[in-house]
Structures are given as C-alpha cells and as structure tokens.
C-alpha cells in the first residue's frame, strides 16, 4: 500500500501519465478513506455508538449516534488528508533528511556529547530558571521536572539490564517497589532512620532482590524472560497488597519522613533550613531540594553506567547482549554477568523507589502496577536501546507530554465543560508508543559509538548493533 | 470428595475460558514469534461487545428466547472482535514485520494501553454487572448426611461453556489440519520466508491468524461475561497473563498444549482458592509459570527449541 507510483514516470508522454497518476492517487485516497471509515464504523459501534450504564433494575443501554458519526467522519477525513498530504508524497526517503543529519553531525562532531552537556547545564539550573522566569508556576514546573527526572533515572537503571545486557525485563517496577517499601517500613519500625540512612539500605535490598529474582531466570531468554519477570513483578505487588500485618495492604504506609539537609528540616521555626541560613521561609525550598536530590541520584546513575561500560563487566554485558553463545565460549561467566546486571539495575531502581517514597510521603501497592514497568520499558526502547541521551528525550516527550495534558484547560471551551483532557492522557500515551515505534523502530537515538574500538571509533548504524532481544 | 468434584467442575469451566484465550497467544507466537500483549484486551473487547449485543437484542428488540439470543450474541461478538484483532495487527504489528524483536512488543504494550483506555473512556470505569441469564443446573450428587451437606452441581452455564469449547476446538482442529488455510499457517510457522517463496501469502495468513485468535477470545469473553456476570475495562490484563501462562505451560506453538495448559491453570487456580487462600491464587498461577519455564522450558507438549548459532 505504501508503494506509490508517484515519482515514477513511465515512458511516453510524461505529462498525461502524471496527470492520470495524480487522478488515480486522489481516487485511491478516497477509496482508502471509505474503507477506513467503514472500519471505524465497525470498530467503534459497540463502544462509541452504544453506551451501557448501570440503571435501576439492571443495565441500561443508550445510543449515541452523533458521537458514532463523528468518529466515522474523523476516520474518513483523517485518512483522506493523510493519503493526500503525507503518505503519497515523494519524501525523498533517506536522502534529504539523511543528508541533513549527516551535515549536522559533520559540523558538530560530538553532537550527542554537546547535547548532553547542554541538558546537564539546563537541568542543573532548572529550579532557578523556573523561579525567575515563571514565578507563579515554579512549584508546578519543578514538580514535573522531579517526575521526569525520576523516570530518567529509572530508565537509566533499566537500561543497564535491557540496553546493555540485553535482558528483557518487564518487572522492573518490583525493584522500585522494594526500594520504596524498604524506606517506608524502615522508617515506621525504626524512628532514627531518615532518608539518607535508608537510601543505601534500600539500594542494597533492591540489589539483593535483583539477585534473588535473577537467579531462577538465568536460563531463560527473550520473551520468556520478559513474561517471567512480569510474573515476578506481579507477585511482589500481590504480596504487598495482601500481607496486611506487615505492609498495611491496600492502605499502604503513610507518614514517611521528608529528607533533611544535613539534619536541617524544611519547615518553619527553630532549627529549620530557612532559620539556619537566615532566609525567609518559602515552601518552594523543599521542592528545589527534592529536585536536587533526584538530579544527584540520576547523575550518579549516569556516571556509574558510563564508567561500568568501560570496565570488563560492562564489556561483558554488551558482549552478552550481542551473542550469548559466543560469550560463553570465550570464557565469560554468563551467570555472574547476568546477575550483576540484574543487581545493579535493581539497585538504581531501589534508589529511585526510596526517593519516590520520601517525595510522596506515602506508598501503596497501587503505585507499582505493571503499567509502571511498561512505561519505563517504553522510555528505554523509544529512546533507543542503550542510548543514555535517548532516554532523557523519551522521558521528556512521554512523561512531560502526559503532564502537559493536565494543563489544557482551555480545551473545555471547545469541547464543553465536561471535557477532561486528563482522562485521555493514557490513551494518548499508548498511541504515542505505537506511533513512535512504527515511525522509528529503533528509537529516537539509533546510532551509537562503540565503547571500545581497535583503531578508530566509527559510528555504527543501529541495524548493526544491539538486537536487544536477549539472545 | 464431593467438594473436590465440585471444584473440579468449576476448574474445568474456568480452564476452558483460559484455553480459548491461550490459543490466540500460542498461534501468534508460533507464526511470528511475538507475545501479542494486546490479546488479553481483545478478550475484554469481546466481552464488552457481547454485553452490548445482548442488551440491544433483549431491551431494544425484545427478543426473549435465550438460546437464539446467545447464538446471535456469540456470532456478532466473534465477527466484530475479529475486526478488532485484524485492525490491531494491521496498525501495530504489520509495519514492524522484520524489525527487531522488541519493537512489536512495545507496540503491543502500547495497543494494550490504548484498548483499555479506549474502553474506559467510552464505556466508563465502573463495572458492568449482568444478572445471571442461564440459570439452573443438574444436581449430580444431592446433599445428604454422607456427603456432609455438600452437593455437586453442574450448572447449565457450565455445560454451555464446556460444550462450546469442545465444539470450537473440534472445528478449529479441522481447520488447521484439513484446510488450505491451515496448511498455509503451518507452513508459515515452520519457515515464513520459504512459505512466501512457495507462493503462500504470508501477510494474509498472519492476518487470518489474528482474526481467528480474536474470534476465539471473543467466545471466551462472552462466556466470561455469562459466567461471572461482572466485567470492566481491566479484566483483560490478568486473564491475558494467565492465558499466556497456560500457553507456555502447554508448550507455546502447540494448540492442544494451549487447551491443556488452560485447563491446568484453571484447575490450579480453583483448587488453590478452594483449599488455600483466595488472595494468593494469582501468585500460585504466576509461580507455576516461573517454575514451568525454568524446569521445562518447552512446556508440556511443545517441541524443544534447538539453539542455532
């Protein structure tokens, strides 16, 4: 269907031929639009055209013809416009865009590195930028940045397992949960434990769990590994949900202490942060401080990953990703290699979890559903497997995009007062996952530099590296 | 003993539903080697379509003769759910054919999110209760002093489910073993490139595989609705994971294996709830999955996978 005849002129009279082609292109666009409209009609009839509701004495059904016709119309015109203006066009695939990118990389030799540096400076100054440029909305902005940064860190943690070692993990949220619950439980049972003492403990416990869960799955590969890790993630969540005496079950644990700045709390009065430094109290201080904690944690994750990649263990991971059998025949201990990948990835998940607990002040099993794992994995894959900067881009696009939807209040003027954009955010998130993957199956950043090279470093196209399929 | 028999019947009923969903997983995995993560949600879609058709028939048109109504519900649900299955494949999987393996998995997860939220938005997040439609049953062993006051019941609904499953399985086996479509499917499963070279339209075959899987999932969704009487937009996830467990347990790629795995998972779940704790029944199912994969990676009826270098 995608193979259009536009641009190929048969011999003879090119003008007439091209006119005929143009005509047939429009006719085809209409035909396809009609097919899509029929399909939309069939698909949406029982969901958009009909609505079932609980009514006294059973279920009630009501027809929504208008909504159904609107959906069909959107399907028809959407496909028509796409066909006329996007699909049929001769985009010069791989020529213009590819050349532009080539020129760009030539002009700026280390584009990735420079981007990373810019990001770094921007991220380091972000709270101040927010405070000076958007004084009214700084708190909200910093809050979203904290969220994005958390996902960047989780993405970088999972990247060690999936991107570097090539082990497809669908239960990463388990370690996030272990970290969060470790801190929550430690702080409820032992009063003297604060965030900074709990952080290493949470990381340690998560790493331990990474090994415990990693050990049985050493022999599994690819999709099987994915489904077993998913099962483990669910098991941990179900246990947290039902072990009422210990974890509080569905009620979760509340009253988790906030982090302190070298023993200084963020509040009013004696011995608080603002009191000690003699500045006027402002609630924003705590958010800025939380932002810098997660920034620091993410930075540690980044640096550790970069350093590990050039150590023997990191190279063993990458070798494992490329070919496990070759790896084993070259004398690499695949068991230890896999376990360290699981453990280190899990450790960063645990750190992030413990930060999550202190930020929220409350944890419950609801925060650790499979959906979280899916979002983190989506960020890693959409960013481009193994690419650190790609994960940052994907987090900003996906998480920032979701959060931005919350602020589209003006849409209520168009769609009426009942319209709530927030309820569409997961739908759009799912669509974005599909569309981005179909558009760029290798993720945003799909070229990579090898960690080690024999004579000179060459940029490798994504097709050559990293199947990332865990085989 | 009577309690055990009763649970056995319940387990087989639930297992039939899992088995029907599992076939969709196993066929797709067999033919293109991917976990169709959205398949559980296709089951959910089937369940919602069944509910809507049922309500339209009974409240709008006023049909009252239940067997005919159920037959129409089943057929319409299969048709429309199959359309959903086809569309999901066309939108999210076909463009990525031949791409690296994680890509379709991500689009599958994306599709699953889309389907769940689509249904949540259009039909609401609250559960839809449907009062039991098929009532009554046969008492196999009446309650008495000897049985300790427990009777063994085989409800008509359970009979309907088991009979439908058996009939569908028989038809399906014929389809796979006797028709040209089934032959094309088996050829694609063995070697897709070779099949394409020998003139099999592989894209069409794969599409039809999704269509058949979705139709069977629709039957499972319809049965689930009638058996439990409560559905919501989230039922697909857990049912999907368990059905996948069933497919893996039976040996992925093997159709009798999927059915056998489904029955076993149903039995394990029901017996676990009956004799141990209800809360941890999912943990039991997931643990079985992990144990089977670790000790018996090719499942009960699957072919051992040969590692090629």
From TrEMBL, chain A:
Keywords: Cell membrane, Membrane, Transmembrane, Transmembrane helix. Residues 29-124 form the High-affinity branched-chain amino acid transport system permease LivHM N-terminal domain. It comes from the Bacteria. Pfam families: BPD_transp_2, DUF3382. It is a multi-pass membrane protein. The keyword Membrane applies. InterPro entries: ABC_transp_permease, LivHM_N, LivM-like. It is found in: Cell membrane. This is High-affinity branched-chain amino acid ABC transporter permease LivM. It comes from Chelativorans composti.
């Amino acid at each position: 269907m995608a193979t259009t005849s536009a641009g190929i002129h048969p011999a003879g009279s090119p003008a007439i031929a091209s006119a005929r082609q143009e005509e047939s292109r429009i006719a085809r666009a209409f035909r396809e639009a009609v097919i899509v409209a029929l399909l939309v009609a069939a698909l949406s009839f029982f969901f958009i055209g009909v609505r079932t509701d609980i009514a006294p004495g059973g279920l009630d059904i009501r027809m929504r013809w208008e909504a159904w016709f609107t959906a069909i119309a959107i399907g028809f015109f959407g496909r028509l416009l796409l066909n006329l203006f996007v699909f049929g066009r001769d985009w010069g695939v791989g020529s213009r865009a590819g050349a532009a990118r080539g020129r760009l990389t030539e002009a700026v030799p280390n584009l990735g590195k420079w981007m990373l540096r810019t990001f770094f400076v921007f991220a380091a100054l972000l709270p101040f930028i927010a405070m000076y440029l958007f004084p009214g909305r700084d708190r909200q902005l910093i809050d979203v940045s904290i969220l994005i940064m958390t996902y960047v860190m989780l993405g970088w943690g999972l990247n060690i397992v999936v991107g570097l070692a090539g082990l497809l993990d669908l239960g990463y949220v388990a370690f996030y949960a272990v970290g969060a619950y470790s801190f929550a439980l430690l702080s409820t049972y032992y009063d003297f434990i604060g965030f900074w003492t709990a952080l290493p403990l949470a990381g340690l416990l998560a790493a331990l769990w990474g090994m415990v869960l990693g050990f049985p799955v050493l022999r599994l590969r690819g999709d099987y590994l994915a489904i077993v890790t998913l099962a483990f993630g669910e098991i941990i969540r179900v246990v947290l949900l039902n072990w009422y005496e210990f974890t509080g079950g569905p009620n979760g644990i509340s009253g988790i202490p906030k982090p302190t700045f070298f023993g200084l709390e963020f509040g009013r009065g004696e011995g608080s942060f603002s009191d000690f430094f003699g500045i006027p109290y402002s609630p924003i201080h705590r958010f800025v401080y939380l932002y810098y904690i997660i920034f620091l944690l993410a930075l540690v994750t980044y640096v550790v990953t970069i350093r590990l990649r050039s150590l023997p263990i990191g190279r063993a991971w990458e070798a494992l990703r490329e070919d496990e059998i070759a790896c084993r025949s070259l004398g690499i201990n695949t068991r230890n290699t896999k376990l360290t990948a699981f453990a280190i990835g899990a450790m960063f998940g645990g750190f992030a979890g413990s930060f999550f607990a202190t930020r929220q002040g409350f944890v419950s099993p609801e925060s650790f559903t499979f959906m979280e794992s899916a979002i983190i994995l989506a960020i890693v894959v959409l960013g481009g497997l193994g690419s650190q900067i790609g994960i940052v881009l994907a987090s900003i696009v996906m998480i920032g995009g979701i959060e931005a939807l919350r602020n589209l209040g003006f849409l209520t003027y168009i769609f009426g007062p009942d319209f709530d954009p927030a309820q569409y955010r997961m739908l759009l998130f799912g669509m974005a996952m599909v569309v981005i993957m179909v558009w760029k199956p290798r993720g945003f950043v799909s070229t990579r530099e090898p960690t080690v090279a024999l004579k000179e470093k060459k940029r490798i196209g994504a097709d050559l590296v990293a199947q990332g399929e865990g085989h | 003993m009577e309690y055990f028999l009763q649970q056995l019947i319940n387990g087989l009923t639930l297992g039939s539903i899992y088995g029907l969903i599992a076939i969709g997983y196993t066929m797709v995995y067999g033919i293109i080697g991917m976990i169709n993560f959205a398949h559980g949600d296709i089951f959910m879609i089937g369940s919602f379509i069944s509910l809507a058709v049922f309500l339209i028939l009974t409240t709008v048109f006023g049909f009252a003769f239940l067997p005919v109504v159920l037959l129409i519900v089943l057929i319409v649900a299969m048709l429309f759910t199959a359309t959903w299955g086809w569309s999901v494949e066309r939108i999210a999987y076909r463009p990525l054919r031949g791409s690296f393996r994680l890509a379709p998995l991500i689009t599958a997860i994306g599709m699953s999110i889309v389907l769940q939220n689509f249904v949540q938005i259009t039909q609401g997040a609250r559960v839809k209760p449907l009062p039991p439609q098929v009532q009554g049953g046969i008492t196999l062993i009446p309650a008495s002093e000897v049985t300790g006051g427990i009777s063994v019941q085989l409800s008509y609904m359970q009979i309907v489910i088991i009979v439908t499953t058996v009939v569908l399985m028989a038809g399906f086996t014929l389809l796979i073993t006797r028709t040209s479509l089934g032959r094309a499917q088996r050829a694609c499963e063995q070697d897709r490139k070779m099949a394409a070279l020998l003139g099999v339209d592989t894209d069409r075959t794969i599409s039809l595989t999704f269509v058949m899987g979705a139709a069977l999932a629709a039957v499972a969704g319809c049965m689930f609705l009638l058996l439990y009487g409560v559905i919501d937009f989230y039922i697909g996830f857990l049912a999907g994971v368990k059905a996948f467990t069933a497919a893996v347990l039976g040996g992925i790629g093997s159709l009798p294996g999927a059915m056998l795995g489904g029955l076993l998972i149903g039995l394990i779940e029901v017996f676990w709830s009956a004799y141990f704790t209800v809360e941890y029944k999912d943990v039991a199912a997931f643990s079985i999955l992990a144990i089977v994969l670790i000790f018996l990676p090719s499942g009960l009826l699957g072919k051992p996978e040969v590692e090629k270098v």
